[in-house]
């Protein structure tokens, strides 16, 4: 079992919230501009949550260009090319020694308390399953092993999360399971997730501001 008890490097894998390039499954009923506003709000909430989690380093691994939504406290690096498995492996390759945790930008209901023990609880890996069969978080005590653990996992399927977790177990890692969370992919997801967001959530505020006819 891993004995590392250091604060983790926190990675967020994200896409610049540009209309027509993000949250395309929200259109319709939302317009591309409304969908991008929701994506920006979800990203902003996630970034602010990670600022409240103890960390050695915080890194935004970005497809695109930073905007005014980015708070201070993050290093910015571009995503590598390739499929999602390659981009996840590339993000972990930035970390060097010590534990690292990667999250996406689609779970604005995430709270700092859910991540407080990552890197300090003696596990080898941390896994956050998503309700759609994927995963919203992946943490490794030895991020240099990420390539072998992630590359080749089929992404964006109903079984992605199960396959990825099995990879961790088959590699002999002790895995801590984080809570199941729902990604924001569809309008139904958006409504459900907004109701779970903590007070002051940008995501819930933006959703409430949209015309009722678009829901």
TrEMBL record:
<dbReference type="InterPro" id="IPR029044">
    <property type="entry name" value="Nucleotide-diphossugar_trans"/>
</dbReference>
<dbReference type="InterPro" id="IPR018641">
    <property type="entry name" value="Trfase_1_rSAM/seldom-assoc"/>
</dbReference>
<dbReference type="Pfam" id="PF09837">
    <property type="entry name" value="DUF2064"/>
</dbReference>
<protein>
    <submittedName>
        <fullName>DUF2064 domain-containing protein</fullName>
    </submittedName>
</protein>
């Amino acid at each position: 079992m891993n004995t590392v008890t250091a604060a983790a490097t926190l990675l967020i894998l994200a896409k610049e919230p540009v209309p027509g390039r993000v949250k395309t499954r929200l259109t319709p009923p939302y317009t591309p501009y409304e969908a991008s506003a929701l994506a920006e709000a979800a990203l902003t909430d996630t970034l602010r949550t990670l600022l409240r989690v103890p960390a050695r380093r915080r890194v935004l691994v970005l497809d695109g260009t930073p905007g005014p939504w980015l708070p201070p406290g993050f290093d910015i690096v571009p995503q590598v090319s390739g499929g999602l498995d390659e981009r996840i492996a590339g993000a972990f390759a930035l970390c060097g020694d010590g534990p690292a945790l990667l999250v996406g930008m689609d779970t604005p209901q995430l709270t700092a308390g859910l991540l407080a023990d990552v890197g300090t609880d003696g596990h080898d890996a941390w896994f956050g399953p998503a309700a759609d069969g994927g995963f919203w978080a992946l943490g490794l005590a030895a991020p240099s092993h990420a390539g072998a653990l992630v590359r080749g996992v089929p992404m964006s399927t109903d079984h992605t999360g199960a396959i990825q977790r099995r990879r961790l177990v088959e590699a002999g890692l002790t895995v801590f399971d984080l809570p199941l969370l729902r990604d924001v992919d569809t309008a139904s997801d958006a409504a459900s997730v907004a109701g779970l967001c903590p007070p002051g959530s940008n995501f819930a505020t933006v959703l409430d501001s949209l015309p009722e006819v678009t829901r």
